[in-house]
Amino acid sequence: MPADARSDDDLMLLARANVPAAFSALVARHQRRALRVAGRQLGPGAITAADVVQNTFIDIYRALPRYQPRGRFGSYLFRILLNQCRIAQRAARIEARHRQRTDTALAVAPPHESAVLARERERDTEAALARLGAKLRDVVVLRYTGELSYDEIAATLEIPTGTVKRRLFDAMKKLRTLMEPT
What we know:
Layout: H1 8-16, H2 20-42, H3 49-62, H4 73-102, H5 113-131, H6 134-145, H7 150-157, H8 161-179
């Protein structure tokens, strides 16, 4: 049976049995969505989403002997990904403090006007997203960047679906307030 037709749990069990193509198929299946979620969660900066996603898959690979197939691999993956994002953000804050002390600012040539406006809008969105609490930000990122359903988000965060909906509502309301021109 081709790897595309197998479930995530089947691929994890095959990877545990040292079938190298199985884990590669899992990575290929989930990498793009994980990169989008990590990119949105981390925002612009020194931390690259690719590094965080790579660390996530390394953690999953190391956990192969302990993995319990329950049909919830997506939740398992995104829980590890969110934890890796938090670790990377803490490391970035520490690095930023050190960089601030050395004050190494780089001069950049002014880019094209429309690109500037697009980047400014993206920066505003990222700043507003960063001002949300972790609980609200996680739900927004998983929903709109990771394209997870309410049930998948609930399973990932281990909270009821109703709580996911409420947090998403609260987050969107707060984002609208934060992004309104003053």
